Every structure is written in C-alpha cells, then in structure tokens.
C-alpha cells in the first residue's frame, strides 16, 4: 500500500488530518497553517533562513536525510506515473522529453523500463 508524506514536514498521511496535492508534492494542513502564520507575519520567522540546515547539528542534519530522500522518491514516483499516463495516451517520447527538458532518447532511457 502506498503512503503519501507531506513534502515539507515528512509526516505520513496517517499522522495528519488533510493533505493537499500539488505537481508531485504534498502539503499537510499543519504546514499550510504554519505557512499562513509566516505569511501573515510579513516575512520569515526568526531563525529560518533559505539554508536552514546550516544551523542544524550533525545529528539533526543526518536525521533529516531520510526524510528528504523519501520526499524525492515520492516526487520521482509521481513523474514516473505521469510519464506512463502520457505514453498510454499515445504521446511521443519526443514530446515527453521536450516537456521534461531532455532529449527523446534520454526520456525513453529513463522512463521506458526497457534496457
């Protein structure tokens, strides 16, 4: 059974009330509320930077790696499913590659499942 995780906090769908889906990413109601508070506050909260991991301890940084990898895998799965749907509709590898910013051959090699 597939489970979906919030792309921001990494919580599993069973741990939250609602999940909003975007193009290959998901955000839970708790993260939406936090984002709303940040936006209403007129900027970023103190202590948050674009590269917030720089302030993490080594242990915190290492603990975050599986969460980020899991979200990356979830996004990759979403791309795979959309490419499969495009192919089932008869969309050419050339058009799929163009949409992904890669050559037709690269798209075929990455997504066809053929060696």
Automatic annotation (TrEMBL):
Keywords: Chaperone, Metal-binding, Zinc. Zn(2+) binds at residues 6, 9, 28, 31. InterPro entries: Znf_CLPX-like, Znf_CppX_C4, Znf_CppX_C4_sf. It comes from the Bacteria. GO terms for biological process: protein folding. Residues 1-47 form the ClpX-type ZB domain. This is ClpX-type ZB domain-containing protein. It comes from Microlunatus endophyticus. The lineage of its organism: Bacteria, Bacillati, Actinomycetota, Actinomycetes, Propionibacteriales.
